[in-house]
Amino acid sequence: MSQGFAISIQADALRYTTHAKPVLQDLVMQLPAQQWTCLLGRSGCGKTSILRKLAGLLEEAQWQGKIETDGQPLSGNIAYMAQQDLLLPWLSVLDNVCIAERLQGRSLSQDLRDKALLLLEKVGLKAYANNYPHTLSGGMRQRVALARTLLQERPIVLMDEPFSALDAVTRHKLQSLSFELLQGKTVLLVTHDPQEAVRLGHQIYVMEGSPANAHLLAGLASTPPRQLDEHSAALQNDILHRLGGEHV
Ligand SMILES: Nc1ncnc2c1ncn2[C@@H]1O[C@H](COP(=O)(O)OP(=O)(O)OP(=O)(O)O)[C@@H](O)[C@H]1O
């Protein structure tokens, strides 16, 4: 199993050609190896842009800065769960989960199918393996996309609001499952939910300002997954306070 490696991000400026002002400026983030980093910030501050830059998908923006690793390439080592589930309508749920293999033109081995079915079982969708995406609810589609991300076993995992469409109980369950299955990976999770960030993050960045940079939250001494106790409530308050400052 490929272990996650550390990534250092320095965005001096990120600007879309359609915008006069940069989206990001003087942003520095460290993603420690094999840890979960959670990223919060007001809508439109540039969280997805950071993920897309790491995933090599940000072609339409000008980027000044650098992204460094310990020498390992990002290309080919990233699993990216985008905000939109990007399920292919003409493929079954099972084939969508195995899409990375299919896109590489490889036939699906029985071993991979079994792994995919096990993941579908864990996300509560084994009975839907032969369904097509249009027959699923938004939350079910999100669970298929999560299973697809978990199947890839890449060292770096980028997730953009992966649990947002789920009911509270399913969300809690799938947070736990993802945390368990992504042990040893370097994870960057974008979320709007302070409780989720405090539960899962070894470290938490809150994006601030316009153009935005990233503030590393202090006081995360314990290791995740964290219980909901007085300490985590105080951390959530701190995040809300910082996010609130962005909405005045
Ligand atoms: N392809 C694009 N072309 C032009 N502008 C873009 C493009 N993608 C994003 N933007 C702009 O860049 C800014 C940051 O967008 P981004 O999607 O990174 O924000 P976000 O923090 O992920 O937002 P949200 O929380 O709403 O998902 C926004 O102002 C958005 O309009």
Automatic annotation (TrEMBL):
PROSITE patterns: ABC_TRANSPORTER_1, ABC_TRANSPORTER_2. Residues 9-234 form the ABC transporter domain. SMART domains: AAA. InterPro entries: AAA+_ATPase, ABC_transporter-like_ATP-bd, ABC_transporter-like_CS, ABC_transporter_ATP-bind, P-loop_NTPase. It comes from the Bacteria. Keywords: ATP-binding, Nucleotide-binding, Transport. GO terms for molecular function: ATP binding; ATP hydrolysis activity. Belongs to the ABC transporter superfamily. This is Putative hydroxymethylpyrimidine transport system ATP-binding protein. It comes from Marinomonas communis.
